[in-house]
Design a protein that fits this description.
Length: about 375
């Protein structure tokens, strides 16, 4: 397996009593609850953790994009990636969450990624997403056009990376007289493209298309849903006439390791429960605004409501029982992850070893135990 260390960069100093005066930690919660001095400390701690992950042997360190939220203070993940490039030498750097429909000039993304690819000498992995519904409230983009803007922006970016310029581009949502990407990507033909998703059937069909065969990553889901969505992707590949490789399949999960089951659960409790109940929990109308999904995809996502913590407060016991989080001794954790790998054939595991309000000392120990006592078994 390939092992990723992924970071959301949540704002841990958040006053939770104040947060719950508002319906979400996104968009509507006042930014007066953000203290820049504490935020600066958070950025430093989180970047140090990402750099440390390379020293521990993770194949890839990964970041993503969110806007107007304490859930993840990374509105510009390219800036974090640039910092990581300067402080690492071997690990791939994945930006597995650049929201294409939210921008009005996809050429800027093409140039940013090409520049990062040059600076890192080919260590960049791209991840293109539509952005969850909250992001459309934050940016004012009409979610009805989400899929169209996403696919057209993707096509424009790939053309900018691969076609000799200058050339013109005329689409439904983007029009450019000159497309002439400077610099060009370091990797040939371009950096790898991943597709993280919460299970949209349209996204699965699009990513599996033989013209793309993009690795598909299931996020924030129970064991049952990870298996179901990866099977949907694999079945879609077979409908297209080819057998997917394990490198096309992956899933992401919060993971916590300690020397006893009870210690692991109690140390992870505040971090896990704050992630799902305080940071991530979002009203239906914000998470899935009208037009954002087709009816079948919306039904699938609504089945995930419990895992997303959007209907009631969830305990770590409930989240462990569903497999949404993996918590326990090294043996428990590696056996549970190995079962998921064997059930799906997935060869990519994106771990969240810091989550919610989990403090730095527990995060570091969690990283070290996972690297020493879980990672080697999964690799072998």
């Amino acid at each position: 397996m390939k092992l990723f260390f992924f970071h959301l960069m949540p704002y841990r100093p958040l006053d939770m009593a104040e947060r719950h005066k508002y319906r979400a930690a996104w968009v509507v919660m006042p930014n007066t609850l953000y203290d820049p001095k504490k935020g600066a400390d958070e950025y430093q701690s989180y970047i140090d953790q990402l750099v440390y992950a390379e020293k521990l042997g993770f194949d890839t360190i990964a970041v993503n994009e969110h806007h107007q939220t304490a859930y993840g203070i990374m509105p510009a993940p390219n800036l974090i990636a640039a910092n990581l490039i300067a402080r690492t030498t071997k690990a791939k750097i994945a930006i597995i969450g650049r929201a294409l429909p939210l921008v009005n000039n996809p050429l800027n993304i093409a140039e940013e990624f090409a520049m990062l690819d040059n600076l890192s000498r080919g260590r960049i992995v791209t991840g293109f997403v539509r952005g969850i519904g909250n992001e459309y409230h934050a940016t004012g983009i009409n979610p009805h056009w989400s899929h169209e803007r996403y696919q057209e922006a993707h096509d424009l970016i790939v053309q900018a990376w691969t076609r000799p310029g200058p050339f013109s581009y005329e689409g439904e949502h983007y029009n450019f007289r000159y497309v002439n990407c400077w610099p060009r990507p370091y990797q040939n033909p371009h950096p790898p493209i991943w597709i993280p998703s919460m299970g949209s059937s349209e996204t699965i069909k699009w990513a599996a298309d033989p013209a793309r065969k993009y690795p598909f990553l299931v996020t924030f889901s129970s064991t049952e849903l990870v298996t179901r969505y990866l099977k949907m992707y694999a079945d879609q590949c077979r409908q297209y006439g080819y057998e997917p490789s394990g490198n096309q399949l992956g899933w992401a999960s919060p993971v916590y390791v300690a020397d006893t089951e009870e210690r692991a659960k109690e140390e992870a409790r505040a971090g896990v429960e704050s992630l799902f109940n305080d940071f991530l929990a979002t009203p239906f109308q914000m998470l899935l605004p009208p037009g954002y999904m087709s009816l079948p995809s919306m039904k699938n996502t609504m089945r995930m409501r419990k895992a997303l913590g959007a209907t009631k407060r969830h305990t770590i016991e409930e989240l462990m029982a569903s497999g949404t989080v993996v918590v326990g001794t090294p043996k428990t954790v590696r056996d549970q992850l190995a079962r998921q790998r064997d059930a799906t054939g997935a060869q990519n595991l994106v771990t969240m070893l810091q989550f919610g309000v989990l403090p730095d000392d527990l995060t570091k120990r969690n990283m070290e135990m996972f690297a020493a006592e879980v990672m080697p078994h999964l690799r072998n």
